[in-house]
Recover the amino acids of this structure.
């Protein structure tokens, strides 16, 4: 159920996430950790950032303790946590946590799901750098995101469209017109021309 819930976290009411947490066995920290992430995501969706932040701090503390014991973490934590930090206006901390998530994912062999998360984290990192005006770093991370995404699912997807648009926009700020146009042309090739 956790994976299904997480894929649709923007639709989960906090009560469902809370029930998931309350049904966790005390000795199963992973179950509890996932429940905290679900609750935080649900609270973020409802605009209850402070409550979401409290749940994420609990999850971060739990993760740090588990990680010190060499236990693998739950990769979705970084997506939810960095979204929270970004929305709270804490851009520097959001950058730091996004990089932490990328480092954690790169340090292990990746499943298809983990590779998709890594692609999303790179894209998010590009967005963070773009927002602080570091367009060169943004381009680097958008390219990394696209490289992973294109390996996973060649062709066009909503995620690929967003990444190519992000890369194109950041390239225009660097006045790298060739890169910007290349990305837009790749998108244009995927769609049939409009006719009357």
């Amino acid at each position: 159920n956790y994976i299904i819930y997480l894929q649709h976290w923007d639709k989960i009411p906090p009560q469902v996430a809370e029930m998931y947490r309350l049904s966790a066995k005390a000795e199963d920290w992973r179950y509890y950790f996932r429940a905290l992430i679900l609750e935080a995501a649900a609270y973020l969706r409802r605009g209850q950032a402070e409550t979401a932040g409290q749940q994420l701090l609990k999850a971060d503390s739990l993760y740090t303790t588990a990680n010190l014991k060499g236990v693998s973490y739950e990769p979705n934590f970084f997506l939810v946590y960095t979204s929270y930090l970004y929305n709270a206006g804490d851009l520097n901390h959001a950058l730091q946590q996004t990089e932490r998530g990328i480092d954690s994912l790169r340090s292990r062999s990746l499943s298809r799901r983990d590779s998709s998360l890594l692609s999303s984290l790179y894209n998010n990192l590009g967005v963070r750098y773009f927002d602080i005006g570091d367009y060169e770093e943004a381009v680097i991370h958008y390219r990394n995101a696209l490289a992973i995404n294109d390996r996973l699912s060649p062709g066009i997807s909503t995620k690929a469209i967003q990444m190519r648009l992000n890369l194109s926009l950041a390239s225009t700020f660097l006045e790298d017109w060739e890169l910007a146009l290349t990305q837009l042309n790749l998108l244009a090739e995927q769609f049939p021309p409009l006719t009357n």
Observations:
- The longest helix spans residues 49-68.
- Residues 156 and 190 are 7 Å apart (CA to CA).
- Confidence is low (pLDDT under 50) at residues 1-9.
